[in-house]
Amino acid sequence: MKNYRAIILLILLILVGCSNNGASGLFSSKKELIIIPREDTIKALVTVEDERFSMDIPEGWVIETTGQYTTFGLRAYDPENPYRSIFYYGKMSPFIKSEEAKEFWAWYASTGYPNSQLYADAPVLYDASIEGLYYTFNVFTEFAKSYGINHNFPDFSNFEVLEQYAASTEMSANALDESTLRLRIDDNGYPIDALVTGTLVDALYYPANGIDVGFYTAYRVSGIMAPADDFMHHEARLAESLASFKYKDEYIEEGVRLIEWETEQAKLLQRTLNATSKIINDTWAYRNKVNDRANANFISYIRGKAYLQDPQSGNIYEGSQAEVNNYLENKNDYKNPNLVPLDSNSEAYGQAISGVLKP
After folding, report:
1. Are 199 and 184 within 8 A, CB to CB?
2. d(C-alpha 69, C-alpha 268), whole Å
3. pLDDT tens string 312-332
């Protein structure tokens, strides 16, 4: 009898020990917090090319081009989410300098002077800067469409400038401005981040009736865009894609023959586009991270998201506010109770996430 009692007692002790083992207890009632690893929404880069250019773009993306030679431009985007995109326009012109100059060209057009109607219809660039350029971007694209340019331009109808950085390329000597801007675009409450740049020059000074009726020209108007909560994951790859653009030598030679497009000018535009990638990367690297955390916090708030962090690995996991609160209030019910809430003032806030909580 004593032997039976000893055996029963031993079994009970084993069962109690197993049930207290949260990691491997045979009869544990603790739940597993399931974390789904984050999938990269931008795939590997693949080369696309034709007789004009070659470029590496994310697999599965669409690329659309417009113009030729000096006015050649393109936009590449994810058809599943067109907010993920890259754009480059070699030359956008003309931008008229004032309303008075625009009125002058309208009067000149009424006299029948050739091509003057184009300048009468062109948009006024009230602020001769890269910021002013992007505030006028949609006006210019509507002007271009009215002259037969059928292209799916990016939309800059509602944005704010989060940060602005000085930039310098080989075109700086003739530039009025070469800034790089970090934008937050609002599309009916859906936030998109963009890093954009360009080179603005005073292309023509032409005094008439006491006013300058010349125009500005913008070169290498380019940038990368993605949803605000997704941008940090893709900035480097999008910048790499933009830098991969290259004109074919035969295309440059053809442009030289047909329109006296100077070979060195064409190569200069290409070099400045390649440099744009580094400018964009540097802009992202040196962004104001205090403001960045505040922006990330606001985006999380409007999306109803909250974050947990593994203090050992540093990995960050995203979930709904309700899911995160439920975990924090019932940590002892889980087999992995070591996660902690991510402080919105932490330097890690707004950085890339490693996974999402399974609902």
Report:
1. no
2. 13
3. 887 777 777 778 778 788 888
